[in-house]
Write a structure and sequence with these properties.
The chain is an all-alpha fold and 129 residues long. It contains 5 helices and no strands. Helix content is 78%, strand content 0%. The chain is elongated, with a radius of gyration of 22 Å.
């Protein structure tokens, strides 16, 4: 069941990415068609390239900007999940590589992924007395 949810989530992200790419291509064609008669085909193509580059720059800035991590409570050490989330915020490409590696492991053997997820979200044992 975990594997099916994971595959569904990956498919949903792929569909969103494909829809975004299609929208960008359609926007580029619309801008080109609107500017072609006004400033000529060469300048219209240059304007489309500039506008799409600007949009890509804005998206890259939004994705890579650093988020302010919440202040940890006194005496509370971070668990593995919090450390992974912090790593994903600081280095999104490393997090993407980790997701790709997890997907590879899940496709080869879903029991390993289930064991990793169960160990990650298991409650901490009580401290020894």
């Amino acid at each position: 069941m975990i594997f099916r949810k994971f595959v569904g989530l990956v498919a949903a992200f792929a569909a969103i990415a494909a829809a975004g790419a299609i929208c960008m291509v359609a926007l580029a064609f619309a801008i080109y068609a609107g500017l072609r008669d006004i400033i000529g085909p060469a300048w219209a193509a240059a304007a489309v390239a500039g506008i799409v580059a600007f949009i890509a720059l804005v998206i890259a800035f939004v994705i890579t900007r650093k988020a302010r991590p919440p202040k940890p409570a006194k005496g509370d050490s971070q668990n593995l999940t919090a450390k992974l989330i912090e790593l994903a915020r600081e280095r999104p490409l490393v997090a993407l590589g980790a997701v790709a590696a997890a997907a590879t492991v899940a496709f080869k053997n879903p029991r390993i992924l289930a064991a990793i997820i169960a160990a990650t979200f298991a409650p901490r044992p009580p401290p020894p007395k």
